[in-house]
Amino acid sequence: MAGSYVLKKSVDGQFYFLLYSSNGEVVLNSEMYVAKASAENGIASVQSNSTQDDRYSRNQASNGKFYFNLKAANHQVIGSSQMYSTTSARDAGIDAVKKNGPSTDVKDEA
C-alpha cells in the first residue's frame, strides 16, 4: 500500500495537506494556503520534488530536536516534518517522504 495525501480545511478557513506513509503515520505537513487550489498545487509540488534529495534541508531546532523541510525548485518550503530525537530518525522520515511523496492518492476532506 502506498502513501496518501489528505487535503483539509483549518478552523480559520485556510487549507493544508498532510502526507501519510503506507503505515498511516503523518510524514509531512504543508504550509497554510488561503485558496484550495494553492494547496492542490502544493500537493503536486511535493509529488514532483519529493524524490530529489537536494530538495531537503536537514535542520536542528533550538531545543535540540531534528527536522527537515522539503523545498520546491524555487527554494520555497512546501512541507515540513515532525520533530525527531535523532538524525537517523529524521533521515528515516526523509526516506518515507521520498517513498510516499509520488503517490497520486489524494483524499479531499476540505
UniProtKB/TrEMBL annotation:
Top-level taxonomy: Bacteria, Pseudomonadati, Pseudomonadota, Betaproteobacteria, Burkholderiales
Gene3D superfamilies from the UniProt entry: 2.30.29.80
Organism: Collimonas rhizosphaerae
Pfam family, one: DUF1508
DUF1508 domain segment(s): 12-56, 61-108
Top-level division of the source organism's lineage: Bacteria
Protein's UniProt name: YegP family protein
